Amino acid sequence: MASSSLPASNFPPLSSKAGSFLCSPPKNWSQVFAPEVSNPNTFSFSHHPSEPEVIPFSSDILSKGGQDWSLCLVGYSVGRRPFYEALSGAIKKTWNLSGSVQLLSLNDGFFLFRFSCREDFDLIWSRGV
């Protein structure tokens, strides 16, 4: 048998009595369920919601930004989401437009239509298909 490199103190002696088991010392149950003593090194944090950051816009900047979206409509596809090319082709065949339309595919079946002229925007807004 090979000698172990671990000291004998790592191995407690076995009980000499048959049927006896080594047990942990009895617990003081009043201390087990007692509230913990606060540690002075422990920090208590609570949530302090910050004020939302407000970015001011002048009315001039706001009106210029609104002009970019004045000829846009948002559309939604019911059922299966059409491929971009198929929807673009269907728009060109179905809508008899004077100008052009840009199509932007958004999330969850939504599309953005940007028209180049007010007449086309008004036609689609009022009539749809």
From TrEMBL:
One Pfam family in the UniProt entry: DUF4283
Residue ranges of domain DUF4283 in the record: 67-128
InterPro entries cross-referenced by the UniProt entry: DUF4283 (IPR025558)
Taxonomic superkingdom: Eukaryota
Protein name as catalogued: DUF4283 domain-containing protein
Organism: Dendrobium nobile (Orchid)
